[in-house]
Structure formats: C-alpha cells, structure tokens
Amino acid sequence: MRAINGARQKKRLPLIVLMGPTAIGKTDIALSIYQHFPVEIVSVDSAQVYRHLDIGTAKPSKAVLEEVPHWLIDVVDPTDVYNAARFVNDANQAIRRIWQKGKIPLLVGGSMMYFNVLINGLSDLPPACPKVRERLNRQIELEGVESLHDRLKRIDSDAASRVHPRQRQRVVRALEVFELTGTPLSELQAQKNTYDVTHLMEIYQIGLWPSDRTMLHRRIEQRFESMLNRGLCDEVQSLCARGDLNAEFPAIRAVGYRQIWGFLQGIYCLETAKNLTISASRQLAKRQLTWMRRWSDLDIVHVDPMSDREKLKKNILNRLKKHV
Q1: Is domain 130-189 classified as CATH 1.10.20.140?
Q2: Closest by Cα among 192, 248, 257, 206 to 227
Q3: Are 144 and 138 a contacting pair, CB within 8 Å?
Q4: What is the second-level CATH architecture of the domain 6-122+193-321?
Q5: Arithmetic mean of pLDDT, 245-259
Q6: pTM for this structure?
Q7: Which strand (E) or helix (H) includes residue 44?
Q8: What are the φ/ψ torsions at residue 100 (nearest 5 degrees)?
C-alpha cells in the first residue's frame, strides 16, 4: 500500500470524504477503501460519538473496530452534549495525527452539518447558556415550541425558514444565540471562520447517491428490522435503566432511540415505534440528499442498493486511484 511520500507532503495533504444517506452502505465501501489505500477512518456521525449506542447507530462491529483504525467513535457518554464545534476540534486533531503517521484521513458518514463546518468553517457562536436555555425550555412547556418558532420568525426569518417548527433544540439554540449576542444566528453563520487544517487539505469528495429511492427506503426498513432482531430494544432498555438519561438528551433523540424509548415508556406500541423510526429515517435520508444536491466538488456515484457491490467498490477504487 502506498504511503504519503515526501514530495506529496510538501504540497496540500490528501483527505478523502465519503458521504451518503443513511443505509446506503457507506461503512462497507469505507472498509473496502481501507483494504487498498493507506487510510484511517474518521467517523462523521453525530450519534456514533456516544458510547453504549451501538446497534441503533449502525456502528462497525467490535471486531472491525479492533482491526481497522477508527476515530471519533465512542468518545463521549450519552449524558454529554456533542456539537458541531466540538466535532471540528476533534476531527482536526484526528486528521493531523493521521497525516503524521503518513496515512490518509478517510472521513465517512452522513452528518452533513459536521462535514460542512469542517470543510467550510464554523462561525463564532457563543457557548450554551444554561440559564437562558432553561428559561426558553420552560416557555416551550407553557406555550409550545411553535410559539417560540413564531418568535424566531420575527427575529431571524432566515434561520426560522431552515428549522422545522417542532425542532425544539434548534429553535432554542437560535433564540439563545440572539439573546446572548443581539445578532441573528443566520448573520453569525454567514461569517465563516476557517479552521487550521482546511487550507492544508487536498480533498477528494465522493457522494453515494441512490439510483432508486424506493430501493433505499426498502433497505432502511430491512436495516431497522435487523437492528430489532439484534437487540435494539434491550440496548435502549439498558440506557433507560441508568437513571441519568431522559428523552431530552441529544443521544436519546437520535433516530431509533427516541422511538424505542417512547415504546419502553409506554407512549406507543412497538409497531408504532417501528413505523415512526422508518418514517424518521426516510426524512433523514431526504435531508441528507438535499445537502448533497447543493454540495460543491462532489463526485457522485450512483448506487443501486440491490446491485453488485463488488462492481460498485471497483468503480470507487478506480476513481480514487486517479486522485490519491
């Protein structure tokens, strides 16, 4: 396998991005790339960072993690709040350390906001303020989140247009930022900062795109059925039993965990939880594809989830050989 040679190191350093919607098979492709290129994998997944969330986040198996170097998996406890700014810091450190080994960072995942802030920069936003956040959450309990979303429309119509009225966490954050800075969130986000490794990167970006959306939906259903058969309910039950978590923690709001948590709390039956998860996964895939449609410099690879995976891998490997 080829390492980064001295001549290459004097130029911009290589970095590979592999992104795609949920359930399209990114992990399988990444492992194939690892077999042919000197890469180490950096997870770009807002749920895989949490320890004890294994089945529902589709983490690689323990055997794979022991054999193939992975970064940013199992880095925080479910009680922690992990955000884009923290990801940028952690990812920059991982990328530098991989380069120092003479290897190539391979960023793999579907958290498009994380990809965006790493590659395009993150605006200077104030840290969370517990007092402001607690007050806003109390107002939501009294008035409903839609009421606060209406307030956000008056303060920052651009930010409000990008946030669903029921996305409580994002509505609260946008209002919190305005209260702390006096400046609309959308205005701050337009003032991008470039992080320290961005200018060093020679980036090759691959986007896995479903050639048949119906097939992707079927794969989403099949994968969730597999998660249930592998013990997802038991996994979520163990999180419930800890006693220090509730449905408002970001880790528990991850797709699949939120719905199974509701089932275990008696809010709805398992069949309803299953249908809600599949619906949420489809919506997630739709949002991911919307991000990808607007992405610049993305080499799109069309994927039929039911087609020959070996041909797909060979196609991607051939593309990489031209760039890395």
Answers
A1: yes
A2: 257
A3: no
A4: 3-Layer(aba) Sandwich (3.40)
A5: 94
A6: 0.78
A7: strand 39-44
A8: -60, -25
Q: pLDDT of 152-173, one tens digit each?
A: 999 899 888 877 787 788 899 9
**CB distance 155 to 175 below 8 Å:** yes
DSSP 50: B
**pLDDT per position as a tens digit, 27-72:** 999 999 999 999 999 999 999 999 999 999 999 999 999 999 999 9
pLDDT tens-place string over residues 260-309: 999 999 999 999 999 999 999 999 999 999 999 988 889 999 998 667 78
Q: Using an 8 Å Cβ cutoff, are 32 and 317 in contact?
A: yes
Asked if 208 and 29 count as a contact pair (C-beta separation under 8 A), the reply is yes
Q: Is the dihedral of CA 127, 128, 129, 130 positive or negative?
A: negative
Domain residue extents for the chain: 6-122+193-321, 130-189
Task: Count other C-beta atoms under 10 Å from residue 252's C-beta.
Answer: 21
Angle, helix 145-155 to helix 130-143, in steps of 10 degrees: 120
Question: CATH topology of 6-122+193-321 equal to that of 130-189?
Answer: no
Q: How far apart are CA 311 and CA 304, in angstroms?
A: 11
Q: Which residues, at least 6 apart from 247, have a Cβ–Cβ distance to it below 8 Å?
A: 253, 258, 261, 262, 265
Kindly state the tokens that stand for 192: 């991008």
Burial of 53 (0-12, 13-18, 19+ CB in 10 A): buried
> CA-to-CA distance for 223 and 231, rounded, in angstroms?
13
- Judged by phi (left if over 0) then psi (alpha if -120 to 50, else beta), residue 270 lies in alpha
